[in-house]
Amino acid sequence: GCFPYNAASHSAQHLRKFVNKILEEYQLQLDSTKFVVTDNEPKILSAFLEQCSRVGCADHYLNKQLQHAFQSNQIPLNKNTIENVDCELVQNILNQVKKVVSSVRHLHQQQKLSQKLQTYSETRFGGVIIMLDIFRE
């Protein structure tokens, strides 16, 4: 289930205590044989460093890769290394499609189309693929 996190502090330590408390209600506890799926936000990483195995969320990872391909000029490979992203052609195409989709939606011309053009959310980058696919059709 979902449980609201209303703690005044959003520190890794408080988050982990919150999770442990919920697990205890179900007579569960984290240990080295248990896996926790999370994103890569630093506080989350810190909260689940010990007494469990953390696994990165595949959807979150894929979302970040798409975001880098479509928006970034550089990506950090690690703390000391930054690599250039060579996706200028794809990024230019995306920007042009976004302009057309925005104009068509703004001018209320969608009624004339067989399928409604879609925009996407910056936090759910998989929507870019849907937007491009509908635009292509």
Structural class: mainly alpha
Average pLDDT, all residues: 86
Strand-and-helix sequence, N→C?
HEHEHEEHH
**Which spans have pLDDT < 50 for at least 5 consecutive residues?**
none
Number of helical segments? Answer: 5
Helix content: 40-55%
What is the spatial order of strands in the main beta sheet?
1-2
Shape: elongated
Beta strand %: 5-15%
**What summary fits the major beta sheet?**
2 strands, parallel
Determine the N-to-C terminus distance.
39 Å
Rg computed from alpha carbons, rounded to a whole number of angstroms: 21 Å
DSSP, total strands? 4
Summarize the topology.
Layout: H1 12-25, E1 35-38, H2 42-47, E2 53-56, H3 58-71, E3 74-76, E4 82-84, H4 88-106, H5 126-136
Parallel strand pairs: 1-2
Antiparallel strand pairs: 3-4
Written overview of the protein:
The protein is mostly helical. Among the domains are: about 10-55, no CATH class; about 90-135, no CATH class. It contains five helices and four strands, in the order H-E-H-E-H-E-E-H-H. The chain has helices spanning about 10-25, 40-45, 60-70, 90-105, 125-135, and strands spanning about 35-40, 55, 75, 80-85. It has a two-stranded parallel ribbon. Strand 3 (about 75) and strand 4 (about 80-85) form a beta hairpin. The longest helix has 19 residues, at about 90-105. The radius of gyration is 21 Å and the shape is elongated. The relative contact order is 0.09.
Quick gist of this model?
This protein is mainly alpha-helical.
List keywords for this structure.
two-stranded antiparallel ribbon, 5 helices, 47% helix, 137 residues, mainly alpha
